[in-house]
Design a protein that fits this description.
The structure holds 3 protein chains of 3 kinds.
Chain A (H helix, E strand, L loop, with lengths): L1 H21 L8 E4 L8 H6 L1 H11 L3 E4 L4 H10 L4 E4 L1 H11 L2 E6 H4 L3 E6 L14 E4 L5 H13 L4 H4 L1 E4 L3 H10 L4 E5 H10 L7 E6 L7 E4 L5 H12 L7 H7 L4 E3 L6 H9 L4
Parallel strand pairs in A: 1-2, 1-3, 6-7, 6-8
Antiparallel strand pairs in A: 3-10, 4-10, 4-11, 5-8, 5-9
Helix pairs in contact in A: 3-11, 4-5
Chain B lengths: L1 E8 L9 E8 L4 E5 L6 H8 L7 E6 L2 E2 L5 H10 E4 L11 H6 L8 H9 L3 H13 L15 H14 L4 E5 L7 H18 L2 E6 L5 H4 L2 E6 L2 E6 L4
Parallel strand pairs in B: 3-8, 3-9, 6-7, 7-8
Antiparallel strand pairs in B: 1-2, 1-4, 4-5, 9-10
Helix pairs in contact in B: 5-6, 6-7
Chain C lengths: L5 H37 L5 H12 L3 H12 L3 H25 L5 H8 L3 H35 L7 H10 L3 H27 L4 H14 L1 H4 L2 H10 L7 H34 L8 H16 L2 H12 L3 H25 L3 H8 L5 H40 L1 H11 L3 H34 L7 H7 L3 H4 L10 H4 L9 H17 L7 H4 L14
The chains are: A alpha/beta, B alpha/beta, C mainly alpha.
Amino acid sequence: MERTLTRGTALVLFGAGAVAAALPARAAASLRVGMIPDAGATQVSIDEKAPLRDYLSAKIGRPVELVIPTNYNATVEALGNGSLDFAYLGGLTYLKARQAYGVMPLVQRISDRQFHSLFITQTGSGIEKLTDLRGKRFAFGDVASTSGHLMPDYALRGAGIDPDKDMTVRYTGNHPATAKAVESGTVDAGALDESVFKALLDGGQIDKTKVRVFFTTPPFVDYVWAARKDVPAADQTALANAFLALKSPADDKILTILRGTSFVRADDAEYATLRKIALQLKLL
Amino acid sequence: MIVLDEVVVRYPGAQRPAVDGASLLVKTGESVALVGPSGSGKTTLLRAINRLVPITSGTILVDGVAVESLQDKALRALRTRLAMIAQHHDLVDRLRVHQNVMAGALGRWSSLHALRYLAFPLRGELDEARNALARVGIAEKLRAPTSALSGGERQRVAIARALVQQPHAILADEPIASLDPELAEQIVALLTTLAKESGIALICSLHQVQFADRYFDQIVRLEGGRLERLKSSVA
Amino acid sequence: MTQLSPHFFGSLLVPVGQTIGMACAGMLLALVIGIPLAIAVATRAPGARAIAAGLSALRAIPDLTLAILAVVLLGLGPAAGIAALAVFYTAMVGKVSAELLLAAPVPPVDALRATGSGRVGLATFGLIPAMLPDLLSFGMYAFECAMRASIIVGAVGAGGIGTELVGAINALDYARAAAIIVVLVALIAAVDTFGIAVRRYPRTGFVLLAIGVLTLWIDRPQLFALSHAFVTFAKMLPPQLSLPELGALPRLLWETAAIAVVGTALGALLGFAFGLVCARNIVPFAVVALVRRVLDTARAIPEVVWGLILVVSVGIGPLAGILALGLHSGGVLGKLYAEAFENVDRPPVLSIAATGASKLSTVGFAIVPLAWRTLGVHTLFRLEWNVRAAAVVGMIGAGGIGQALFLSQQLFFYKAMAAYVLITWAIVLAFDAFGERARAARLSAEGGRPRRRSGRTRARSRTRSSDRSLCDGSAGTGRFRERPPFEGRAAPSASARRSGARKSRRSASRSMPPNASARYPSRRRTSPVPRAP
């Protein structure tokens, strides 16, 4: 009877193998572009970004599929295992992806070269400078975020505050949640991405009268569009050119989605300082 | 005083009535043995008296009040006056002995009082429980867990609970069914004596008739829902 | 903010489809892998013991933990969800099916000896047809659980409606989040209803299998991106924690334990209060019906979803976790407690009521004390489950070891992540063992006591851990639990079919005495099995 069992198992294995072999190789017809989940990874937010998708498809001449992974890690791993071809990455995420999978930096917004994190607090909190944060409840965004964690952390340490020891720290997971946590008073203060904060104020999701900025970090390099190492050079160039071709009044619809004004070429060398900081804070 | 006049109890859907035209008069301090085979309607009759079972026709008067007309408060008051000792000495195992005994006081206690007693019994209340237990001869079991009692002790606790109720009558349903003969006679003796001492009417259903004659004033037999008098009271 | 337009609901179709697809595909794989393993275990094939142990151990890894692993290994999207569900439910299907098969009218080992047929033949023609109703009933129960799991694995990026919900909450779009929750509760209700249909008309179950196959086909590229998975897996070895991480470990464990214990306590309190007001023997029917709906809703929303909502309203941290566990457990325990209250022995209650006690006094003096033991058992089970749940809600920001796991994943510290997975696993195993022992102790303590009437209540509470810790007991309306296949029930058709199968097996073998079936009365226990001569 053991023989029968073995035969059965073999049959199952053979069947599975046959099915696997019959599967066609992954269709590479469309380019898969990932965006970081800074404002929610939902079907709706993908739909909202449809103009960007259409623009890219038209420029590259290939169908483009927009994907919004739920978090930074997912985005990088997707670049690693080939389920994404291009991705929009934060500074720290880019460093991780570069280190792990050798991704290629392509383009970034002009503002990304001179990016800032904002420290915000309630209007009447009495917190005026970083040293006032000692003993307070503080919100970072995603632990892997540059503007939501890495740079604010660095700034705090520069001011002599060790976030691990001198404050009660929480990771909210994303920028809007940080803003909301500060607005509602769940935390005393928080740090987040300047462009997201501006968009939240403009969109009315955060009450201008309840929250104020009390510190802005020195500029640093942040977001970048990057390509998976194995994406053909022609596709890389096509995508980069599509972004570089965006001009202000004409393409405003798409630029709003991207929260930028114009794009420039990106280069790994600009990230040297950021890399040093990340290593120093043991986040890389 | 309890008066039954042509009482009929028919369960919904049943072909024959469980109790079929029973009439009986029990005076204060008098004890009645209700004998008959199992399934003859003894339990139903007893439950009809304190309205746990509704009667189909006839009248039951307890101290001159017709039980079938009673609602809510008045019904609770009736039940308070009629202590029930059931077939399988239905104590709550999880409770301590004194809690089971003082369950007899629930009719006169408010709900809040009752819940407070569960958590914080007062000394006076415990004394009352101890006195009742002393009358049935097991005062030392006051704080014992009920589950640790023997069969005879459980029945004594049930009687103590009935005493705490300060009832006008005790309705005992096969109180000795699961006890050995010697213990059974002790319990019957205890019940009838206590009833006589306190001037409580006692209706006690029994499976067998052996020593009933020695202890009860009246003996009636219930069979197929009908009552038959075996021994009448002297008066 | 997006309006709740038809367009919005239209855009939910894809994620809802993904969620259903993940559940179907996960279950399909679980059946394909789990049933043969179960047969191997039940027929004591070589290595059966090892397989059984492996299945037990695997089941102790919480589903969301598996999902995180799967997302790292397989990338985003439904493929990761399918993989996580497949692993989790293979363990469950394998273990429980093996128990079911061992409980067959003629235990497989005896049948093997008696008929001399092969294992596969025996399984195909003997065991599976005989146990089909039980397997089916269990399968649907498992599917209902898988459906819930399919929603929550989305929360860490495995796709489907869970991912949508996280996205909507992250985008501060509460109107949309609320709408998604409504859709989600409706989905769970629909699946439970469908489950009833499948139990009645088993053939409808094939729809699920078809959806499963379709989903697997759609997600095939990702499922086969395995080389990357191996590379990533290598990065997790060996699991290790740095010194500061080790230093923080006691606090993390303490936090997770606190979430589990306090959450269970809160759930027990809520469950007690709600259980009292929805027990038919305590309050009028109208109130019961109303309160039951409230409990159904609390139960239909998984802990993780409660957690997502609460993290927004009360902020990140253990409080959100405690409330999430408390609310969900309150829903589950409320229902179980109400059943316990309804099932207490009637005579003691009557005798208390007969003293003229008020309703509330009767509850205090009789109903609650009588149900107490059962409440205790349910609560213990809940605590056991909540240890997993506490680790899981941590991942969505409620703190504790779950949060540490999630953060290390986010920072690509895979060695640390693997260490946290192992620790979570060890904790769950330890708690399961502890629960098992506590129950055994309770039962043996009871054994020596003279008790007359409460056998009925006790039998109900003695459901084994295996069928409870599969899912969190919130699936369906607890039909599987109320009518567990282990403890004897059987629709007439089922028993008819079983005796038919018994007959055919008998005629197939001459070595079995003609009255063989009489020698195996419908024994429904797996424990010590008398051997055939």
